[in-house]
Amino acid sequence: MAQGFSRRGFLLRAGAVGCSAAASPFVTPMSFAATPWDNRLVVIILRGAMDGLDAVRPWGDADFAVARPGLVAGRDAALDLDGYFGLHPALGALMPLWRAGELAAVQAVSTPYRDRRSHFDGQDLLEAGGMSLAGGVKDGWLNRMLQGVPGATAQTTYAIGQESMLLTSGAAPVSNWAPDVDLSLSAQGVRLLEMTMQDDPGLAAAMAEAVRLADADGDAVVAEDEGERMAMMQGKALRGGKGHLRIADFAALQLREAARVASFSIGGWDTHVNQANTLTRPLKRLAEVILRLRDGVGPKVWGKTTVVMMTEFGRTVRENGTRGTDHGTGGAMLLAGGALRGGRVYGAWPGLAETALYDRRDLLPTSDVRAWAAWAMRDAFGIERSQLEARVFPGLDMGDDPGLLL
Q1: Among 194, 312, 346, 371, whose CB has the most other CB atoms within 10 angstroms?
Q2: How many domains does the chain have?
Q3: Per-residue pLDDT tens for 138-157?
């Protein structure tokens, strides 16, 4: 090998050809450090403002049907949660988790964001975790939590997906991975990599793992010629729609090993028009992700896992003229995991009478969504309440302990 050209340098250059170093599985070291706890936390940001009144339907509130004559479906006993709330049919695959106490919801929650109803500002405040965006946002609440954890390394936490997440940005090291990094190689290319790394078992293992992760759908990565490689790429493009499952597979793989925290986002929740149809797809994807995570990590790790699903704000109580809903305030969050004390809808329900609504149009928030995330971290990782309220979520009052985890 030429002087000044190491195997590690070759990998760094190879990763830089097709993607950024931060997104390349090649660049991430495979030596994992121990962490001070064994529980797992997965944070999923639902971008676009999920309608919590549709995802977790308040059938027992008489004003629900009045406000949504074109959207409200009749009660379905198979989806009944507690006699008052019911689950959207697209989340029906999660009912076994509900019955097992591994699924829960929190109704009437929001961040401190009010009135402007901008997706961008709402998401920034959700991920920043403060009281406002004044003064600029430099890091996210999940990263600030990690900054206070001794022993946390880049392999402790994974930010997964194409986009940069403010949630995990900051001084603490975080690994990044995107599901669509194209590592399809010719047979000769794979052989060259093998020869380059044959004397370094660690890097050889990293290469094999990277190739496997880059093709989580199960197709052969190795193409014998360029024509075959193009056919493979076209086949992947035609299938489409599986990125969320590849993300779940990668998260599960890391959480089975040294990773303790994972975060990613799922989009498609902005349902201004024809909500009965447009909400179904992201809800089904979310259900698929949760079940894939559970199956991927296995029973032992799932029993130590909490999944927190959050959105930037809720949607209007009344449907609009196109049988959709517009940007609102109060909404719902979902929780899953074997560590969860589930099978219940948490939160104080304010009711949907017009006089009970926020600004006479939105579900009134009765609790701060940040408090529920804070209690999940307090219960899972033993982080001091004072640190959560002052450092991780500045200005937050966590209130009474809801007993989220077992």
Answers
A1: 312
A2: 1
A3: 899 999 998 888 777 777 77
